[in-house]
Design goal:
By secondary structure, the chain is mainly alpha-helical. The chain has 20 helices and no strands.
Amino acid sequence: MLKVIKEKFNSGMGRDVVWTFSIQILIMLCSFAINKLLANRLSIDDFGQYNVIKRSVQVLSFVMLAGVGIALPRYIPLYRNSTPPRRIAPLLTASMIYIIGVSLVVFLVCILFSTQMQDVVIGQGGNMNLLLVALAYAFILALAQYVFAYYRGIGHFKWFNGSQLAMQLAIILPLVLLPVLTVSNVFISWLIITILLVVFFFIKEVKSKWKEVREYIQPQNKSLTAHLSPLTSHLKTIIRYSSGRLVADFFQFSLSAFPLIYISNTQGLQMTAYFSVGIFFVTMVTPIFSFMGIILLPYVSQSIVRHEMAAANRLVSRLALTYVGASLLFMGFFFLFTKFLTILLFTSDYLVATDLTRIMILSILPQAVYMLYRNTIDAVSVIPYNAIILGICILTMIVSFSLSTTLTQFAWAYLGVSILQGLLSWIIWRAIKNPDTKNCQQEQ
């Protein structure tokens, strides 16, 4: 086994793992710094509202992304490894059109139902300007995720991770430099910074691929209809694959956003701030577990094409043991040092949340299991199994939260849903991990 692991880490995939893991640790440290600065400079109520908006923006952003964040890392390797290799420019164009179309629908719905959406997205009514800022920020984050998905698909993991790290470092600056910090100017400053970075990434990639882009935009001896026909085909491919993933992304981030939105509307922003401590401890380590899935999706997609699925299955099985061990270590560390870490990452004002935080920390293990299997499930099948899993989980969460009345009960409900999420993903992976390669290729 040690020989196999050594071979993997000496391979291109192994280098990608090491690089991705290292950068994800740095991104996690940036998250610590951001959280500490905000917890110290905002009031408890404002910090509660910040967390509501942050989670709501994540949900809106991934709805606007429309599942393209999973589609591109799957289809770009399939296109490039097909015989003969297929151009990816039409695929990227179709993906962008799809994102813009879905985003316009989201904007329209939020504007038409602005009164209700203000309570949901920003945790208070009578602040239309902040709702618009949140929507704009969600859209630019969707474009950033589009760029990240492109880097994943082409295998440029240094740029994939480096661009995320640059974004995290950049948004720390206004938290330090702004003389007065409010929820509004936090998100306005982050919106401006993210726009500048996304524009830079777009210009860089267009310049580096200008020859291919120009050939696609100005094809020789082709009518407009002949030019649009393959684009329509690619758009259908993206919509067919991504539509179910759009629902899955919505459910995935709703699992973090719904508790805060529900508690802010039923218990108030102060209770929301206390509950967000537990969610922070869980979500601050999930990127470490999801980083392997980031690499596994294109890797498993290539394995299907190359008839190497048995090797991919063995790798996933070994990683499952690693994930369980790492999860237990994190849980033990957080459980023993909950009070110390709460003071370190927040302030002593949040120590009242210690008991419920310890309950929620137990969610790390089942969520790590889900993080391992979700990308491999997407690579193997076009059926949106993750959407089904997460749909069941969000319905369970809604019911369990509606039956709860205290923060402790909400914490136990959160843990129960996490266990269900990890269990269902494991069951489905066991059922579909040996796909019919021929059928998978026909689904492209």
